[in-house]
Structures are given as C-alpha cells and as structure tokens.
Write a structure and sequence with these properties.
Layout (H helix, E strand, L loop, with lengths): L1 E5 L2 E9 L5 E9 L10 E8 L5 E9 L5 E9 L2 E10 L12 E5 L13 E5 L7 E8 L5 E8 L14 E3 L2
Antiparallel strand pairs: 1-2, 2-3, 3-4, 5-6, 6-7, 7-8, 9-10, 10-11, 11-12
C-alpha cells in the first residue's frame, strides 16, 4: 500500500484480487475536505489495472503539478520473471482511467527464497514538478537484489505529449 498527498487530495493504492483471480493494482483519489475536524472524506475517482495474463503487486502512486498520476509496480506470471512497470494518466483522461503498463526494467531470475519485486516507489522531481522517478526492487544476474530506476514525463508544461517513453538505469 502506498499513499501520496498533493494539492488537497490523497492518492492511495493497494494490491487486490481481480474477478479473474489474478492480483491487480487498485488506486483511489480521495478529497479529505476538512476531515478529521469536520465532514467526511469523499472518493473522487478510483480504478484498477488488471490483466488475465499477469499478476500485479507492490504498487506506489504519485501526482505531479500538472495533474498527471503515475503508478509504479511489479508484474510477473508463471513464465515471466518480475518486471518493473508503470501506468499513467493525464489530468484530462476520463475519471478512473489509467494507461496500460509500460516496462522499464526486468529481473533475470528469482531468489532462492522466491522473493522478488517486493518494493517500489514513485516520486516527482522537485526541480521541475512534473518528471517522475520510479524505483522497483528486482533480481540481478549476480544472484543479488537489484534496483531499477526509471524516469519519464507523462506530459510537459507546454502541453506536449512526451510519448510515455521511459529511460531506465540499473545502478
């Protein structure tokens, strides 16, 4: 579970089970209003990123100063080692909509304890307020834990489409 607060809104995400049985990423935007002093928080929008092919888990969420929202998480299935992926939405997208997963890093195996992809985070670059940085725990060829770091823009202040193409580095 991950929670992010920005501009009077709270964004949160968690792993849930889809109707098809695979794990999915569920996300929520909440307007807390004046709570807990008075009133009740209100759900603004929510959605799921699900697949009949992959399991998704360990999501993180953030919003930039342009209103773009990004989810960073891990995906895998019985024939694919854990992969670092993100999904994005622009402020102008329909409520509850989230883009398809975009790959920005991969594991080359699994640890002998079958642990992998247990951690993720996504943050907004404080120097410009709109570039996202995503981090996901993976497994390297050296049989050790690894960290994949990606950076991308969903949109830019000029309104141009960045094409959602990530740049990833593995430290």
């Amino acid at each position: 579970m991950s929670t992010y607060a920005r501009a009077g809104r709270v964004f949160t995400t968690q792993t849930t089970k889809s109707d098809g049985g695979n794990h999915q990423v569920s996300w929520y935007e909440i307007n807390p209003g004046n709570w807990p002093v008075s009133g009740t928080p209100a759900l603004v929008q929510s959605g799921n990123v699900a697949s009949s092919t992959y399991h998704y888990w360990m999501p993180s969420i953030a919003q930039n100063n342009l209103g773009d929202v990004v989810l960073v998480y891990t995906r895998a299935n019985s024939s694919t080692y854990p992969q670092a992926v993100y999904s994005a939405r622009r402020l102008t997208d329909a409520k509850g909509a989230m883009g398809a997963p975009i790959l920005f890093g991969e594991s080359v195996g699994v640890h002998n304890f079958w642990r992998y992809g247990d951690y993720s985070d996504v943050e907004v670059d404080p120097s410009n307020g709109y570039t996202f940085f995503g981090v996901v725990n993976t497994f390297a060829a050296t049989r050790m834990w690894d960290t994949v770091i990606g950076t991308w823009n969903v949109s830019t202040p000029s309104g141009s489409d960045s094409g959602l193409k990530p740049t990833a580095v593995t430290p």
